[in-house]
Amino acid sequence: SGHTGPELFALDELVRAQGGSLVVLAKRPSGSTVSILLPLSPG
Question: pTM higher than 0.85, yes or no?
Fold first, then answer.
């Protein structure tokens, strides 16, 4: 159970589908929460 991502410390509770895009919430070691928006291409 070792995540070696550069900034992703621990995946917070998850990946939420939001109107055609995925929102990934990650916690950094400093304690701040980062949200990453991944657009989904229809296909």
Answer: no
